Amino acid sequence: MEQGLHKEVIRVHYKDTDQMGVVHHGNYVNLFEIGRTEWMRQAGIPYSKMEEMGLLLPVMDLTINYQKSAHYDDQVVIYTSVSNVSKVRIQFDYEARLLQEEQEATDLPSGELLAKGSTVHMWVNRDWKPARIDRLAPEVFAKLQAM
């Protein structure tokens, strides 16, 4: 994972599990979304600000590699970073890790790896046309490149 790493700790809710008490595989996408949203907020560029500027960030590609299942009431930490930024695209990388009951999330990835993956997004305007963030929000682009 790259610098600019953000950690977000959540507890698995019952609604996110299947009949066996295991987190449904599709819910890791939600964990990644939580990580990405909070990474953006921590960086000072929350989604709401981007949307006010007329910029949207749809997902173009998603990869997930599952290692182990999380269960109801587990404490999970999502580590999120940005590994690639261009004028029209951005890639986020994620690790979802299991924390033991007494374990604290550290700033560097800790806990047992549950899943890792990435998402690639493209900046578009409200008409869903590609948008160059370096032109529409140069201060945001500079901030992203610095991270």
From TrEMBL:
<feature type="domain" description="Thioesterase">
    <location>
        <begin position="20"/>
        <end position="102"/>
    </location>
</feature>
<keyword id="KW-0378">Hydrolase</keyword>
<dbReference type="InterPro" id="IPR050563">
    <property type="entry name" value="4-hydroxybenzoyl-CoA_TE"/>
</dbReference>
<dbReference type="InterPro" id="IPR008272">
    <property type="entry name" value="HB-CoA_thioesterase_AS"/>
</dbReference>
<comment type="similarity">
    <text>Belongs to the 4-hydroxybenzoyl-CoA thioesterase family.</text>
</comment>
<dbReference type="Pfam" id="PF03061">
    <property type="entry name" value="4HBT"/>
</dbReference>
<dbReference type="InterPro" id="IPR006684">
    <property type="entry name" value="YbgC/YbaW"/>
</dbReference>
<protein>
    <submittedName>
        <fullName>Acyl-CoA thioesterase</fullName>
        <ecNumber>3.1.2.-</ecNumber>
    </submittedName>
</protein>
<dbReference type="InterPro" id="IPR029069">
    <property type="entry name" value="HotDog_dom_sf"/>
</dbReference>
<dbReference type="InterPro" id="IPR006683">
    <property type="entry name" value="Thioestr_dom"/>
</dbReference>
<dbReference type="GO" id="GO:0016787">
    <property type="term" value="F:hydrolase activity"/>
</dbReference>
